Amino acid sequence: MATNSLHCSIQQHHNHHFHIKFQPPTTFSASQLFLKPSNITNNITLSHSSSGSSSFSCVTFSLSQATSTTPSSTSQESVSFEVLKQHLTAEEYQKADEETRRLLIVLAGEAAQKRGYVFFSEVQFISESDLKTIDELWRIHSDNKFGYSVQKKIFEKSNEDFTKFFIKVGWMKKLDTEMEQYNYRSFPTEFIWELNGDTPEGHLPLTNALRGTQLLYNIFNHPAFDEEQEQEEGDDVVAAVEDKGLKEKDDSSLAKRVFKPNYSF
Amino acid sequence: MASLVSSPFTLPSSKTDQLSSISQRHLFLHSFLPKKANCHGNSSRSSLRVKCAAIGNGLFTQTTPEVRRIVPDKNNNNQNLPTVKIVYVVLEAQYQSSLSAAVRALNSTNKDASFEVVGYLVEELRDEATYKTFCKDLEDANVFIGSLIFVEELALKVKAAVEKERERLDAVLVFPSMPEVMRLNKLGSFSMSQLGQSKSPFFQLFKKKKTSSAGFADSMLKLVRTLPKVLKYLPSDKAQDARLYILSLQFWLGGSPDNLQNFLKMISGSYVPALKGTKMEYSEPVLYLDTGIWHPLAPCMYDDVKEYLNWYGTRRDADEKLRSPNAPVIGLILQRSHIVTGDDGHYVAVIMELEARGAKVIPIFAGGLDFSGPVERFLIDPISKKPFVNSVVSLTGFALVGGPARQDHPRAVEALSKLDVPYIVALPLVFQTTEEWLNSTLGLHPIQVALQVALPELDGGMEPIVFAGRDPKTGKSHALHKRVEQLCTRAIKWAELKRKSKEEKRLAITVFSFPPDKGNVGTAAYLNVFASIFSVLKDLKYDGYNVEGLPETPEALIEEVIHDKEAQFSSPNLNIAYKMSVREYQKLTPYATALEENWGKPPGNLNADGENLLVYGKQYGNVFIGVQPTFGYEGDPMRLLFSKSASPHHGFAAYYSFVEKIFKADAVLHFGTHGSLEFMPGKQVGMSDVCYPDSLIGNIPNVYYYAANNPSEATIAKRRSYANTISYLTPPAENAGLYKGLKQLSELISSYQSLKDTGRGPQIVSSIISTAKQCNLDKDVALPDEGEELPAKERDLVVGKVYSKIMEIESRLLPCGLHVIGEPPSALEAVATLVNIAALDRPEDGISSLPSILAETVGRNIEEVYRGSDKGILKDVELLRQITEASRGAITSFVEKTTNKKGQVVDVSNKLTSILGFGINEPWIQYLSNTKFYRADREKLRTLFEFLGDCLKLVVADNELGSLKQALEGKYVEPGPGGDPIRNPKVLPTGKNIHALDPQAIPTTAAMQSAKIVVDRLIERQKVDNGGKYPETIALVLWGTDNIKTYGESLAQVLWMIGVRPVADTFGRVNRVESVSLEELGRPRIDVVVNCSGVFRDLFINQMNLLDRAVKMVAELDEPAEQNFVRKHALEQAQSLGIDVREAATRIFSNASGSYSSNINLAVENSSWNDEKQLQDMYLSRKSFAFDCDAPGAGMMEKRKVFEMALSTADATFQNLDSSEISLTDVSHYFDSDPTNLVQNLRKDGKKPSAYIADTTTANAQVRTLAETVRLDARTKLLNPKWYEGMLSTGYEGVREIEKRLTNTVGWSATSGQVDNWVYEEANTTFIQDEEMLKKLMNTNPNSFRKLVQTFLEANGRGYWETSEDNIEKLRQLYSEVEDKIEGIDR
Question: CB A22 to CB B296 under 8 A?
Answer without folding.
Answer: no
